[in-house]
Give the backbone structure.
Amino acid sequence: MNSGELLNQLLIDLQSLFRISFRKKKFTLSQINLISSIPINGIEMTSISSYLGIDNSTLTRNVNVLIKQNILKRDVNPKDGRSKLLVLTSHGINAKIELENIIEKIGNKLLKNKAIVDSDHFMDMLDALHWEINKLKLK
């Protein structure tokens, strides 16, 4: 398998694993990505859409659903007083913590696999891969 095929298969398998793991939480994968990407102090819509690599209309649909579920709210940006920040509600913060705990459990299960002998080396490789992916996103 070449690197492109392996990356594609890794993406598909990881998405599938996340969907299965989060099925009981009733969030879509897009919503999980959104919730887990919002910092505690909030983020502008354009910044999060760029970070997630999705268009504004897709983001707006997901945001509106999560606002109805009391996960997110829109607040005025204190820096300029006119733009809006997406902010997690207290319910949203709890949901984010739950999601992060599930993601951590997935990671721990992977690291317990005997085929991955050196977990520190594996984490270093994942960190390096993450860095390279982010560099490609900036080009």
In short: The domain at 3-138 is CATH 1.10.10.10 (Arc Repressor Mutant, subunit A). The first helix runs from residue 3 to 22.
